[in-house]
């Protein structure tokens, strides 16, 4: 299927508007730029809000506006990495709502906020200069949300503008767009309504010269050629946003600050390290007998030796200079091995996969389980079914801002410290675990049937990790779903592609040479330039996430990475199919059961019980979950067949009321008063009957406030007339009042023989007189 861009959106234009004269003098620095993205206009402005920040910008699309501020300290931070914090928060006021917690304030962070913060971080982090270790904070403030245009992509562009318009050293700007696909037609920055029917949700962050810095995508089995076309379209439109931000920066005459200190290794220390340690480091990286643990131990041994040597030869050196010197040389040797000798540290060819093994049905009590092993990466996946009431319920603010609603499929990713032979804190959820789990969930969600009668939870626990554990989770999750008997439309596999590149000495934004690596190890990810994760079926792509560590990646490399990942994905699927090729026809015998039961209106009150008492009692004693489907149908979820049998017996006992079928409309019966209330009396017509209310209005023709006015007492027998069941709530309709008229005696005399005949058919039923 060939995709094309909606007519009218193929032309992008740029308009700069100076501040209107009517703006107050305090806003004389306000500048705006408009970017035409086909039928929509993206407005970027600066100079009005948050002017104490190093940089601040507002991006507006439709009536959705997002402000982002950027502040960076002038004193360096004692760390070995760029201390960047990105915080995206959903503001209830922006959506016209009030938080639902008890103090009515925004508390904590939601999954959507964390994932959006990661999107922004991954987009801007690669463009900070090397050695810039200054605390930098990027805060995203939602000003207004119209419910039509999502604010997440706007926040990426606002962060780019805030950094570009500040004096913070940053090699931007970047531009970001969302691309959707409806009926094979590509849409740029589609509305929320359009995204509801879109088979693609692609976010592309582009750098100048049509390069890519970040890709995040979920898709419903989109073909490779369509996906590639969407990426190109996204990069093309991102360039217009970049030009708009560059124009604003020129208008404001932005000058970048010069850091007091950059944390880079001195040249003389680098040369000394190369001369003394290169051979030892090279020997470790070319010894293919090493595994992850032994290789790390060998490198750490050389590191300790290097630190002692450098301290002796450079006594005035700072600790970071010593560490950085060793790290730079180690990285050079590792990368040159790939670039110049086409060799990987484990001996594989550049496009070769690690050894893969699969196993399913590991533990009988589980609804579904699988173990996926790829090299030294091992993931245990389990599938759990529960009732539809166990689905994820999003809070009203998340729903209002992002449109995310309840979902009955979830994947939770766990990465305990022992997976890398370390100790650490257990419990809680960090951003990395949430991001990896969200990616694996995106990969599997398109193949899970939407009308499945259970809520599905896949748990992916990483038992060993040496790279690409998120894609191993997608593979293991697919196997576990098939083992559980979930009728997924196709198996899913994922793989990570790495990059080792060499920048052009004359133009650092261009690559002079590069190598793409299939199924990367942890060290290849750490010392490489890219982590490109792709998942999908034999037919197409379901998820893609690209993290780039260099300032930009040419489109050519992105297309090659997609192709190389697609080849590897099909090879992995072939191995997985040897373990289990299709979903089991039946779920496990100990699995949950869902059944619909029909409760006639006449029995509904008895089934539910006073105030829902009977329903609560069934659920508490049997462990089932009961929910009402329609007027006469209830859905019963049981975690095991035994629980269902127990619940069914319970329900039969509650609804057992055979004598009710013998009552005749218009017949007169003797009722026994069991309770007296202000509004009436509770009566029984026979022994095993639930008491029925006989209201004051039906006791006598006189208007009374309490049954005692008629001398009624508990245990007293009275005559009542039966008028069948109320069609709306099934309650029994009785009246004593109608028997107080002369006509009632006449009817009683005429029907005497018939009532005697009824009474003889059932010895437990009171005598009926007509």
From TrEMBL:
Q: What organism, scientifically named, is this protein from? A: Austrofundulus limnaeus (Annual killifish)
Name of the protein in its database record: polyribonucleotide nucleotidyltransferase
Q: Which family does it belong to?
A: Belongs to the polyribonucleotide nucleotidyltransferase family.
Does the keyword section mention Magnesium? no
Concerning InterPro entries, the annotation shows: ExoRNase_PH_dom1, ExoRNase_PH_dom2, ExoRNase_PH_dom2_sf, KH_dom, KH_dom_type_1, KH_dom_type_1_sf, NA-bd_OB-fold, PNPase
Per UniProt, which keywords does this protein have?
Answer: Cytoplasm, Nucleotidyltransferase, RNA-binding, Transferase
Residue span of region Disordered: 751-770
Q: Spell out the Pfam families in the cross-references.
A: KH_1, PNPase, RNase_PH, RNase_PH_C
The broad enzyme category this protein falls into is transferase
Q: Which GO terms describe its molecular function?
A: 3'-5'-RNA exonuclease activity; polyribonucleotide nucleotidyltransferase activity; RNA binding
């Amino acid at each position: 299927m060939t995709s094309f861009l909606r007519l009218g959106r193929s032309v992008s234009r740029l308009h700069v508007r100076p501040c209107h004269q009517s703006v107050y003098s305090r806003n004389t620095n306000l500048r705006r730029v408009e970017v035409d993205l086909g039928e929509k206009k993206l407005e970027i402005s600066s100079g009005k809000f948050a002017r104490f920040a190093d940089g601040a910008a507002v991006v507006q699309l439709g009536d959705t506006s997002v402000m982002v501020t950027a502040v960076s300290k002038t004193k360096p931070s004692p760390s070995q990495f760029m201390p960047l914090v990105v915080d995206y928060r959903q503001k209830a006021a922006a959506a016209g709502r009030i938080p639902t917690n008890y103090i009515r304030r925004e508390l904590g962070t939601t999954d959507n906020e964390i994932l959006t913060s990661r999107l922004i971080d991954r987009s801007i982090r690669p463009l900070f200069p090397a050695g810039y270790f200054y605390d930098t904070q990027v805060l995203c403030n939602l000003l207004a949300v119209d419910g039509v245009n999502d604010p997440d992509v706007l926040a990426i562009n606002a962060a780019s503008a805030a950094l570009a318009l500040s004096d913070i050293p940053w090699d931007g700007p970047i531009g970001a767009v969302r691309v959707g696909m409806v009926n094979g037609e590509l849409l740029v920055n589609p509305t929320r309504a359009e995204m509801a029917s879109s088979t693609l949700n692609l976010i592309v962050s582009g750098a100048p010269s049509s390069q890519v810095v970040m890709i995040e995508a979920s898709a419903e089995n989109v073909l490779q050629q369509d996906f590639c076309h969407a990426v190109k379209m996204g990069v093309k439109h991102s360039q217009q946003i970049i030009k708009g931000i560059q124009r604003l920066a020129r208008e404001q005459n932005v000058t970048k600050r010069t850091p007091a200190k950059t944390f880079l290794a001195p040249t003389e220390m680098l040369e000394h390290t190369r001369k003394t340690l290169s051979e030892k480091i090279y020997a470790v990286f070319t010894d293919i007998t090493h595994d992850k643990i032994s290789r790390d131990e060998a490198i750490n041994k050389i590191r300790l030796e290097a630190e002692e040597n450098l301290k002796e030869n450079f006594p005035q050196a700072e600790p970071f200079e010593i560490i950085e010197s060793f790290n730079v040389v180690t990285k050079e040797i590792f990368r040159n091995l790939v670039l110049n000798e086409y060799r990987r540290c484990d001996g594989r060819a550049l496009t070769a996969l690690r050894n893969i093994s699969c196993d399913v049905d590991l533990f009988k009590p589980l609804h579904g389980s699988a173990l996926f092993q790829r090299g030294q990466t091992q993931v245990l996946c389990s599938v759990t079914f529960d009732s539809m009431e166990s689905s994820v319920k999003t809070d009203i603010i998340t729903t209002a801002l992002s449109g995310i609603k309840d979902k009955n499929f979830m994947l939770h990713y766990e990465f305990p410290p022992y997976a890398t032979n370390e100790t650490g804190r257990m419990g809680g959820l960090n951003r990395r675990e949430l991001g990896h789990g969200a990616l694996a969930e995106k990969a599997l969600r398109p193949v899970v049937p939407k009308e499945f009668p259970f809520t599905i939870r896949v748990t992916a626990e990483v038992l060993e990790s040496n790279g690409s554990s998120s894609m191993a989770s997608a593979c293991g999750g697919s196997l576990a779903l098939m083992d559980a008997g979930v009728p997924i439309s196709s198996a899913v596999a994922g793989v990570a592609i790495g990059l080792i590149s060499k920048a052009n000495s004359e133009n650092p934004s261009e690559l002079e040479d590069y190598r793409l690596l299939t199924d990367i190890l942890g060290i290849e990810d750490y010392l490489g330039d890219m982590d490109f994760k792709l998942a999908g079926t034999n037919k197409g792509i379901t998820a893609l996430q690209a993290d780039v560590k260099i300032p930009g990646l040419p489109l050519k490399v992105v297309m090659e990475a997609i192709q190389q990942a697609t080849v590897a994905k099909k090879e992995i699927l072939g191995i997985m199919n040897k373990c289990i090729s299709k979903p089991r026809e039946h779920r496990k015998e100990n699995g949950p059961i869902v059944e619909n039961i029909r409760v006639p209106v006449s029995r509904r009150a008895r089934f539910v019980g006073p105030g829902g008492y009977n329903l609560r009692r069934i659920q508490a004693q049997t462990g089932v979950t009961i929910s009402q489907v329609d007027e006469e149908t209830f859905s019963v979820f049981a975690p095991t067949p035994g629980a269902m049998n127990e619940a069914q017996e319970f329900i039969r006992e509650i609804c057992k009321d055979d004598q009710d079928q013998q009552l005749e409309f218009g017949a007169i019966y003797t009722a026994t008063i069991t309770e007296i209330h202000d509004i009436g009396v509770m009566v029984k017509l026979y022994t095993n009957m639930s008491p029925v209310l006989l209201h004051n209005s039906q006791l006598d023709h006189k208007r009374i406030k309490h049954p005692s006015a008629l001398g009624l007492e508990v245990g007293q027998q009275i005559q009542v007339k039966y008028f069948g069941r109320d069609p709306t709530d099934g309650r029994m309709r009785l009246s004593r009042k109608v028997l107080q008229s002369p006509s009632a005696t006449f009817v009683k005399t005429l029907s005497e023989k018939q009532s005697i005949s009824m009474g003889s058919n059932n010895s437990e039923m009171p005598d009926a007189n007509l």
